[in-house]
């Protein structure tokens, strides 16, 4: 049996809401990566008045790039909206 227009509209609405939830999750994790990997070391270094090591700076860059990648994945997820 063919689906009614109301059923199709409901399926589209459900799909869009699930897509937005996925994008929100990815973006929230990206924000957590920024806090954990970038802001926390900056606060720690400024509080202790010491210079960050090369490894710390490298890890900060890695966390930042991971956050950017997740944010971009969230952006791409939103392109699936109908």
How much is the radius of gyration in Å?
Answer: 20 Å
Percentage beta strand: under 5%
Question: Helicity level, as a percent range?
Answer: over 70%
Q: What's the total number of strands?
A: 0
**Uncertain regions: pLDDT < 50 for 5+ in a row?**
none
Secondary structure category: mainly alpha
Strand and helix order: HH
Structure description:
The chain has 82 residues and is mostly helical. The protein is built from 2 helices and no strands. The protein has helices spanning 5-48, 54-78. Helix 1 (5-48) runs antiparallel to helix 2. The protein is rod-shaped.
Compact summary:
The chain is an all-alpha fold and 82 residues long.
Keywords:
82 residues, mainly alpha, 84% helix, 0% strand, transmembrane, Membrane protein, transmembrane helix
Topology:
Blueprint: H1 5-48, H2 54-78
